[in-house]
Design brief:
Strand order of the largest sheet: 8-7-6-5-9
Oligomer: single chain
Number of helices: 15
CATH class of the largest domain: Mainly Alpha
CATH superfamily of the largest domain: Hypothetical protein af1432
Length: about 425
């Protein structure tokens, strides 16, 4: 295991020949593409020439992590120090005045809504597949069935927002292309709801999320499905999908501006480093800024043939690093509040060395979700699963039941899906 005290984060302009880059810290750039063009590799490596450093900077890399055990040292905070800072920032969100528990009010129990949520989400996935196939054949998008599917998902969310959200947070073994579109729609609707947007705008943004990648159907299939590195020309063709998405949606009768903005701006970045128009700050619409956050989050938490998904809390911390320049920090904090500091499916360690899987957020406290206890680290044994509401253990008199860190499920050979209510829905 790598010692986080021997990994340092430094600015790209401080790099020197002889340093070993262990992480380029740039998954935000192309989260749903095959990666950078062929002339730029993200493989961890020692930098041997100034030309390599210049190329890295030209690719838009601003900060990297270096391993001082494999190369030259540099001046910068250690990974352990960065991790502590990010954890502190996450914890501070508990005190945000903007935390809106009213937006998460429920009409139906979580378990009761789960099966209905799974049904409407599967229907949406089938619809997305059909719509994208039609678009590939050059047929015009029929908005009515898309609206109906999004409204059904929204209705489920209004009955219990956590039921359908859990099905996007905890990844199923499914085809990424279609499920990514549905997940982006779900996350965006949850995000909008947490910000108090009205129902019609939520629907419009959800439609944009479902169709945000429709322009990829005009990307040559040999480029879209290429398993190796893209050439510069192919990389440009891949990026053009955003332009095509805008065009297709603008040509669709009845399509709303909110929907178009989601599709057209989900790869823009607030520092102007995104595409296709390199928009900055408020030049990007609010829903465009929101869609950029959601698109990256779902992509980097999903397993791909060329990418192992990050656990939810790890993804949130990485994106918190990037939010100072690539995302709107205030909106990103709102997003965290909509999915939870400890999203459903997260494996957590308590002070008393028990391990638990987060099965439901607690609308009264981001730091005290409902968990299922699954293992005792001290006694090195699995436990009979037991549901525990950590809010009941809030305060000094209940010392021991505070979450102290998140854990990687594979480290403990624990599959979080198996401990969710109705686990078959997550297979």
């Amino acid at each position: 295991m790598v010692d986080s005290n021997t990994i340092k984060k430094i600015s790209a302009d401080k790099l020197k020949v002889g340093m070993f880059v262990s992480d380029f810290n740039d998954e935000w750039q192309n989260p749903d593409d095959q990666g950078a063009p062929a002339n730029f590799s993200r493989t961890p490596r020692k930098l041997n020439t100034e030309a390599e450093i210049d190329s890295l900077i030209k690719q838009g890399i601003k900060e990297v992590y270096i391993d001082i055990t494999q190369g030259s040292d540099g001046s910068g905070p250690t990974q352990a120090e960065i991790e502590a800072q990010l954890q502190e920032q996450l914890m501070a969100l508990e005190d945000e005045d903007s935390l809106d528990t009213a937006a998460k009010s429920v009409k139906v129990d979580f378990e009761q809504e789960q099966e209905k949520a799974a049904e409407v989400k599967d229907q949406a996935r089938t619809l997305v597949g059909n719509v994208l196939s039609d678009a590939r054949m050059g047929q015009q998008v029929s908005l009515e069935p898309v609206n109906d599917a999004v409204r059904n998902m929204a209705d489920s969310m209004f009955r219990n927002p956590d039921a359908i959200l859990s099905l996007s947070l905890i990844k199923k073994r499914d085809e990424y292309t279609f499920m990514h579109s549905v997940n982006v729609g779900v996350f965006l609707m949850s995000f909008c709801r947490s910000m108090g947007m009205d129902e019609e705008r939520i629907i419009e943004v959800g439609v944009g999320g479902m169709l945000h990648d429709i322009g990829k159907m005009r990307t040559p299939e040999e480029v879209l499905n290429k398993k190796g590195k893209l050439t510069d020309e192919e990389f440009g063709q891949m990026r053009d999908h955003v332009v095509f998405s805008r065009t297709i949606l603008e040509e669709t009768t009845g399509m709303k501006e909110n929907s178009i903005e989601v599709a057209a701006e989900h790869h823009e970045r607030v520092d102007g480093s995104g595409y296709p128009k390199r928009l900055k700050g408020d030049q990007i619409s609010t829903v465009g800024q929101m869609s950029a956050i959601v698109d990256v989050y779902d992509a980097i938490t999903s397993d791909r043939c060329y990418h192992k998904g990050n656990p939810p809390t790890v993804a949130l911390k990485r994106m918190m690093e990037w939010s100072k320049s690539h995302f709107n920090p205030e909106l990103f904090q709102k997003f965290i509040q909509s999915v939870g500091i400890y999203p459903m499916g997260t494996l957590v360690r308590l002070e008393n060395q028990l391990l638990g899987v987060v099965i439901k957020p607690n609308e009264d406290s981001l730091l005290h979700p409902v968990i299922t206890l699954v293992a005792d680290i001290k006694r090195k044994k699995r436990l009979q699963p037991k549901v525990l509401d950590l809010l009941q253990f809030k305060g000094k008199e209940h010392k021991g039941f505070k979450i102290i860190k998140t854990e990687l499920p594979e480290t403990w050979k624990i599959d979080p899906k198996k401990f969710m209510p109705n686990p078959k829905l997550y297979e």
